[in-house]
Amino acid sequence: MWKASIMEDYDSNIRRWEDLDTDILVKIFQLLDIFDLTSGIAHVCSSWRLACCDPLLWKTLDLSMLRSNFIKIPLEPFVYVDGRSDRTLTRLLKISLSLGRQSIVTLIFHFNLYVSDEQLTYTAERCPKLKRLVLPAWNRIKITGMCKAIRGWNELESLTMPCIANPPYILEEISMHCKNFRELKIMGPCDIYFASSLAAFLPKLKVLSLRCSTLYKDVLILILDSLQHLEVLNISHCILMEVVPPPNYKRIIREIDMSIRQKASRLREFLTCMDGTCTMCQRTSADEGLVRWYKYEEGLWKKDEVRSLSL
């Protein structure tokens, strides 16, 4: 009896996992990645479920460690994604967005994660408070799908996107529905059409990053002349080109001239790097202005000289 009594007292003094304070559980769960959070721990007990739904865990939904299993194809959308890969992403989105309960303000996708129209629409409907979207791959997203998503993101402030053939449709939607939009990062060349569209639809843009791509001098001048509210411009590691008469047609500019620097002097930050000894400049040059991020260190694509755009 005496031994049994001791054991009962001992057992009563042991604190069970399910009895931990929610705040402590949340701190523990913050150490987990998205795969652990969606693996079923929310079903252990009601207190764990409550902790799993805490907004602190879901301000950022980071899927940058997840890639599609795909092959390149010659016709649009130029990639074919394996069905199992698609189902994995759909499952992660459904569980995450259910637990997140509309708390997500930052959403990050890998540059080799090819989201479908249906997945984007499903996500947009459940992230009405989204402020930052990092979505480098749009191959499988149609114009209608992206426009529908943008219309639901009234609080969107920041977008990381690829270069696209028809920029006005997305930029016009942003101008109409995202009144607080302030920063844009383009992963790929920004041509005169894209720059003109920026000037037409987002003239109050504050931050623009065009790093690690080909950039023509006339495009740079258009940006500096037209975006009068621009405060930060990043053209680090860009191949700066200009059009010249035949037979050469174009040439690389090795140094930014005084006329450009004078136009950029009004900016709070004009970030440049055109150093032949710089590793990132060398890589941009070797890849002819369209960096093959998959060849380099994991996570390198996330970097940016603009602090607010770096991941």
The beta-strand count equals 13
Please, what is the average pLDDT? 91
Provide the gyration radius in Å: 24 Å
The number of distinct helices, counting runs of at least 4 residues, comes to 12
Helix content estimate: 25-40%
Distance between the termini: 61 Å
Main β-sheet, spatial strand arrangement: 1-4-5-6-7-8-10-13
Outline type? elongated
> Structural class of the helix and strand makeup?
alpha/beta
User: Could you tell me the strand content as a percent range?
Assistant: 15-25%
Q: What order do the helices and strands follow? A: HHHHEEEHEHEHEHEHEEHEEEHEH
The parts where pLDDT drops under 50 for at least 5 residues are: none
The main sheet comes to: 8 strands, parallel
Report on this model:
By secondary structure, the protein is an alpha/beta fold. Among the domains are: 1-57, no CATH class; 200-311, no CATH class. Helix content is 36%, strand content 15%. It has helices at 2-13, 22-29, 34-37, 46-52, 83-100, 117-125, 143-151, 168-177, 192-201, 217-226, 258-264, 279-286, and strands at residues 60-63, 70-72, 79-81, 106-109, 132-134, 158-162, 183-187, 207-209, 214-216, 232-234, 239-243, 250-252, 269-271. The strands form three sheets. An eight-stranded parallel beta sheet has the order 1-4-5-6-7-8-10-13, with no helix packed on it. It has a three-stranded mixed beta sheet with strand order 9-11-12. A two-stranded antiparallel ribbon has the order 2-3. 28% of the residues are buried.
